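Researcher: I'd like a structural prediction for the single chain below. Treat it as a standalone chain; there are no partners to consider.
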Amino acid sequence: MTIFFALLIMIAGKYDDNCVRVGGDPLAAFADAFALSWTTFSTVGYGSTYPALGHENQNPSNCLFITFTCALESFFGVLYTGFCGAILFGKILRIQSHAQVIFSDPIVIRYGSGVESHCNDDDDDENNDDVEKEKSISKVPCPVLEFRVINRLFNDVGGEIIDATLTAVASIDADDADAPNSRDGIICSRRDEENFDENRTIQFDSTSKVRTGSNSIGSHRFLDKLLHKTYHHGVGVDDDSTTRLVNKRIFSKMRLEACDHPFFKRVWLARHVLDDNSPVLTQKVRKLIRRNGGYWPENYNSYEGVHESLAFGQILVSLNGVSNVSASDVYAQKIYDFVDVNVGYQFVNLLYRDIDVLKVNTDLINDVKEQNGGGGEPLTPHTE
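Model: Treating it as a single chain, here is the predicted structure.
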């Protein structure tokens, strides 16, 4: 742009030699025109090369073109400087708003003997019938899904994240969801499905808005119940409602243990119990857990069974909090695919002491070992 305006200045100088002055003399070389162009564009100010003043030209009307050219170039220079400053500020703000954390690449699932069972019976009954009944019930604890996060600034003063919140959402194909009409909407229950008529339709469209028939009776009560159930079933999002090239997806929030951290400094291990309320399990397995009194079905107590019980496409994890250094909101996110799941494994320890200082070995964030009691799935095939 500077060269383009330099050519315009050169043309104006050829039209009237007295319109551009170089140390008091008329314009003669392109280098002088370029010097006037960049000083005008950068708004540095005129130096030895400048547009002629009124007393230096006998016919000032001939210099209107050079005056307009310099004014226009100065305006573009101010815009360019403003845009560059805004882009640079946006880049810096984006870097500052990104939480300096590391997510583990794998997700591990401990099951069976790898899960510490907290189900202890406090009541002692001497009745032999009750004892036999209690033994007949399989009390295998539900598997636990785990992933972890490391704070990169664990060794820096003020590197903590205040009021950190960890959120996990499972992305499930609508065909695998347990809603009866998940492609057209989300139905609360069988009774609500019977009360559904053509004048009272509620569904989630591609913009994730709820549409309600205006002539329905008690539609607000039904809508409240629908939204209450949506927390368990998830929110349906249809990317393509016409050609059906892409199936509708259900986004369901996963319940994490200790999802809030008031002072995140080093390592955060997130756990999600695969119980009867877990959205990543199939409907069949959730029913079996309920029938089994909240315990894991014994016929699924293997890495093949755990894999078969899972029904999700991706798990979207987000971390939000306030940086203790900049006092600004920070965030980070991670997307886990189904292939990232390792059944029958647990994470290795990251913490160690160095001269009475607790440190974190970040190189071990993705290292796993087989769970206590064994039963881990084969990770890589052995080839000779």
